[in-house]
Amino acid sequence: MARSAESVRAVIKAYDVRGVVGEQIDADFVREVGASFARLMRSEGAGTVVIGHDMRDSSPGLSAAFADGVTAQGLDVVMIGLASTDQLYFASGLLECPGAMFTASHNPAKYNGIKLCRAGAKPVGQESGLRTIADEVIEGVPAYDGEAGTVSERDVLEGYGEYLRGLVDLSGIRRLKVAVDAGNGMGGHTVPAVLGGLPLEIVPLYFELDGNFPNHEANPLEPANLVDLQALVRESGADIGLAFDGDADRCFVVDERGEPVAPSAITALVAERELAKEPGASIIYNLITSRAVPELVEEKGGVAVRTRVGHSFIKAQMADTGAVFGGEHSAHYYFRDFWGADSGMLAAMHVLAALGAQDGTLSELMGEYTRYAASGEINSTLDSAEAQTERMEAVVTAFSDRAVSVDRLDGVTVDLGDGAWFNLRASNTEPLLRLNAEAPTRGDVDAVVDEVLAIVRA
Hints:
By secondary structure, this protein is an alpha/beta fold. It folds into 4 domains: about 5-155, 3-Layer(aba) Sandwich (Alpha-D-Glucose-1,6-Bisphosphate, Chain A, domain 3), CATH 3.40.120.10; about 160-255, Alpha-D-Glucose-1,6-Bisphosphate, subunit A, domain 3 (Alpha-D-Glucose-1,6-Bisphosphate, Chain A, domain 3), CATH 3.40.120; about 265-370, 3-Layer(aba) Sandwich (Alpha-D-Glucose-1,6-Bisphosphate, Chain A, domain 3), CATH 3.40.120; about 375-455, Alpha-D-phosphohexomutase, C-terminal domain (TATA-Binding Protein, 2-Layer Sandwich). It is built from 15 helices and 22 strands. Strands 1, 2, 3, 4, 5, 6 and 7 form a 7-stranded mixed β-sheet that branches. Helix 6 (about 155-165) crosses helix 7 (about 185-195) and helix 9 crosses helix 12.
């Protein structure tokens, strides 16, 4: 069944498949995506695809339709049922087969989507398969004239927990009180399986799996969605708070005062721990991560490797450099020991291990890793690519007499010297210019932000 190019390309995006259920995504569409993915994987020698899904109402039905498409192309399917995205990556690595995860991550309830990977959790992005799949779905996926594949079920949750506990040993830490906001997402499924039985008192919040997100959106990147966890940490006297997004591949951290800990600081802490295990190793950081990360990596004898924003770039650099770890400002954390894939749970376990190995508070522990003031990501709506380019160039011109350097790895990054810099780049998915700035003091950051936004929003 051929589909319009516009409708297909609106859903098959740069990194994944995502859209509104019933309008952009339905069982027939997903069946065709599954069939095309199976054809691509079969051409690369795969014989099995593992499929997992989150707690959204539409996820079981859509994952079953995808399985129909895969088996119709002669490949077998292993269904792991309810899973976090990093649990699906674990299954892909364990079984050494391609995978499909049904989730729309932090998006509202009306959305769903698919994250695809090759065997060993290797990414499938626009240039590494998604464009091919989109083209086939538009033209109509050719039928397969061989024997259909089979469907089996396998529970990998216990194995996932055992694997993570083997990477980060928490058995000997001091007892910690840990407040966890699962946001009615998959953290409510994985946290008990991974952290249960350890010297941790878990104070749960919104662990009930509910894809309608009755309490708040499962997007901890938005400050409003951290408010309940911050209150719980303060009220319960917890040592630390953890907030997971909908598919639990990202984890955000709150200290004992209820204050958010910057993902860049978490990246620096985990990098230091990984370098202690493997001195001289490479660490990946994206270009809007705090400069504290490369500074600390180099101080600890590691090699800091800078990359563009986006998981496909991070994972490619991980593979090319053999890096042990990579971190992003958005709280995605990537581990060589986890097939180069991202796991918010594994990052959280590193923080728990570091906190539980000493007697101080989390805010005291993180002080070493927080060296600069940062703006956070500030978005400005500009409807055309031409307007975005025009404003970026106007900003570069305005700062040209003060800039130590300007690079264009991803948008424009302007280094102002003495620890001050900003990056301005176009969103990959929305009509936005994204600004991130960092400087030694909050006043310095505010001055840079005000000047840049006056030009961007003129």
